[in-house]
Amino acid sequence: MYRYRAVLLRARFDENKDVKDMRVAQQLLDEGEKELFSLIHYQPRQFAYSPGGVAHGREVVPPDWVLDYWHPMEKAAYPEYFARREQRKKEYIEWWEKTYGKPAEPAH
């Protein structure tokens, strides 16, 4: 039922997409928002990993620079990955210097 009503509401928005008068357009938008609010469930479902869910943001994704501090023996377990990673780091540095120039040397 929700999807059906959403499609109908979207169709109404599409019918009025070429309205030039801003007062009429604002009135149509307000009516659409009122209708949408009146149709939402009183206790909307929130999926666990979606924003607002109980597990949102729990999984910490380590930043890429952490891999630079791996011990060489750890890197030896994934030689192809780290070879490709070093190549891509060089390509990124070349792109950065080409786009923005070399960073200025700090004065000592």
Structural notes for this entry:
- Its main location: mitochondrion.
- Keywords: Acetylation, Electron transport, Membrane, Mitochondrion, Mitochondrion inner membrane, Phosphoprotein, Respiratory chain, Transport.
- One of its GO terms (biological process) is mitochondrial electron transport, NADH to ubiquinone.
- InterPro entries: Complex1_LYR_dom, Complex1_LYR_NDUFB9_LYRM3, NDUFB9.
- It is found in: Mitochondrion inner membrane.
- With 108 residues, the protein is mainly alpha-helical.
- The chain is built from 4 helices and no strands.
- The longest helix has 22 residues.
- The mean pLDDT is 90.
Describe the protein's topology.
Layout: H1 2-15, H2 22-39, H3 72-75, H4 79-100
Helix pairs in contact: 1-2
GO biological process, one term: mitochondrial electron transport, NADH to ubiquinone
Protein name: NADH dehydrogenase [ubiquinone] 1 beta subcomplex subunit 9
Domain Complex 1 LYR protein: 7-36
